[in-house]
Write a structure and sequence with these properties.
3-stranded antiparallel beta sheet; alpha+beta; 6-stranded antiparallel barrel; 17% helix; 320 residues; 4 domains; conserved putative lor/sdh protein from methanococcus maripaludis s2 fold; 19 strands
Length: 320
């Protein structure tokens, strides 16, 4: 009996067997795992990257070809997880499982990592600043120091202008935003331009309950104490300072705050050695610290300043 042969010297049964093995029936499919995820994980478990030039990568430790800094190992990534599937023509339409649209097009998977990166990109775009990494040597050269955010007691100093209305009586005008912190019995001290070098002290005796509609200030009266009595001229202008204590508030050094237009920023350091800008809402201020009402948590690591060089690097990373 004559045997019919296929090209490449295979018999007909062998060709049929090969076709069966290559058909979709011989493959398995996982609904929620990206087939490239394990390959990416395998490659990225041994990636070294330059902190200043992220495009310089290697599978081995060494130096950057551009700046000659030591390459830093990138932490391995876990298998990519699919968050949901989206319509290829309308990204606002989502599905929990793989499906097709009305034209037969497959929905595209959206991964958790991609959502995180997109959110970070939106924040960076809004601030006009990007994330960046610094080696310990570079951080030292920048002059910035890294601190851990914590709770502390703050004494807010409130400066109030006023005048002498008698031998021992004074009257101050407190600004509206400071009026809530001023109480009867608080101590004050200050000085008068008419008596250079002379410091006076006393205690608050009364606080008005109605703001002046024209100046948006609140009248506060006080009584001078000790040697200050009779030492100031009547109707002399004075500048007083009152101290209000706030217990265990989240606070950061004044140098850590970067005032950027209408926003206040800090630079937060993550566990991978990457700095990122973050908007914070500030509260009261002492001589050297600001209260942070939102944007940070106790235990966060931030740059304590000066942050001008870090801010410049962040802008460069945003506009390479």
């Amino acid at each position: 009996m004559k045997v019919v042969k296929c090209s490449f010297f295979f018999s007909v049964p062998s060709c049929l067997l090969a076709l069966i093995m290559l058909s979709p029936l011989g493959c398995t499919h996982s609904d929620h795992v990206d087939p490239t995820a394990k390959i990416l994980q395998k490659n990225q478990d041994r990636i070294y990257r330059c902190p200043m030039h992220p495009q310089v990568q290697s599978e081995f430790a060494g130096e950057c070809l551009i700046c000659h800094m030591k390459l830093q190992k990138v932490a391995g990534v876990s298998e990519k997880k699919i968050k949901y599937y989206r319509n290829p023509m309308d990204p606002s339409v989502h599905a929990d499982n793989p499906t097709k649209d009305s034209m037969g097009m497959d929905y595209l998977p959206v991964y958790e990592a991609e959502m995180s990166e997109a959110k970070g990109s939106e924040i960076s775009k809004e601030l006009g600043r990007g994330t960046f990494a610094l080696s310990p040597d570079q951080l030292k050269l920048s002059g910035a120091q890294v601190i851990v955010v914590s709770l502390r007691d703050l004494v807010a100093e409130i400066r109030v202008p006023g005048r002498v209305i008698g031998g021992s009586r004074v009257s101050f005008q407190a600004f509206e935003q400071d009026s809530a912190f001023i109480k009867v019995g608080m101590n004050f001290e200050g000085e008068a331009p008419s008596s250079p070098g002379h410091r006076f002290a006393g205690k608050i005796t009364s606080v008005d309950s109605i703001l002046d509609p024209m100046t948006r200030t609140l009248r506060i009266d006080g009584m001078l104490a000790g040697a200050s009595i009779g030492a100031l001229k009547s109707e002399a202008s004075i500048i007083g300072t009152l101290g209000s204590t706030f217990s265990q508030v989240l606070a950061v050094p004044e140098e850590a705050i970067l005032h950027a237009g209408s926003r206040d920023l800090v630079y937060v350091l993550d566990n991978q050695g990457v700095f990122s800008p973050r908007v914070v809402k500030l509260g009261i201020k002492s001589k050297t610290y600001y209260e942070v009402k939102s944007g940070l948590l106790a235990g966060d690591k931030i740059s304590a300043g000066p942050n001008f060089l870090l801010d410049s690097e962040s802008k460069i990373e945003f506009n390479p």
